[in-house]
Write a structure and sequence with these properties.
Length: 169
């Protein structure tokens, strides 16, 4: 007996055993294995299909979010521009009101200063007139205390009074 060359009987029985095992596997084993492989293939195909659909939906959602962001950015820019316009208008109106109020205050102050100036000038004139009269009274008393001087002074005044209307003509 050689280990490398089997005998014919052994080969016959090994062939029959192989055929029985192959028949049992062919009849009962391979259909189960192929059905499991087919189910697994179907599961993988469904998963790939669902993944493809999910990617498409994700792409659609990304596009929608991009559009929403663009709209939001455009709306933000619009609102900011409107806010700048409103701010500028408010500042302009406040500036105009402030200028008008300052002009009114300045005009009121000028009028008040003019009135006070006129009043001060009237008071000064009145005081100057009073002082002039007081000085004139004192001078005249002193001058008129002498009789000759008094007559001379009266004649001078009368001459000036008569000459003045002639000069105006």
């Amino acid at each position: 007996m050689s280990f490398l060359l089997p005998e014919a009987g052994l080969l016959f029985w090994m062939l029959i055993a192989f055929g029985v095992v192959f028949f049992i596997l062919y009849k009962y084993g391979f259909p189960v294995i192929t059905s499991m492989i087919d189910e697994r293939k179907k599961f993988i195909d469904d998963a790939l299909h669902n993944a493809k659909l999910a990617n498409e939906k994700l792409a659609g959602i990304e596009e929608q979010s991009r559009q929403i962001l663009e709209k939001a950015n455009a709306e933000q820019v619009k609102i900011l521009r409107e806010a700048v316009v409103v701010r500028d208008n408010i500042i302009k109106e406040a500036h105009e009101k402030a200028e008008a109020e300052s002009a009114r205050i300045v005009a009121t102050a000028r009028e008040q200063i003019r009135q006070e100036k006129d009043e001060v000038l009237r008071e000064i004139r009145a005081q100057v007139a009073e002082l002039s009269l007081a000085i004139a009274e004192k001078v005249i008393r002193k001058e008129l205390s002498d009789g000759n001087v008094c007559d001379e002074y009266m004649n001078t005044l009368l001459d000036e009074a008569f000459e003045a209307p002639k000069d105006k003509k």
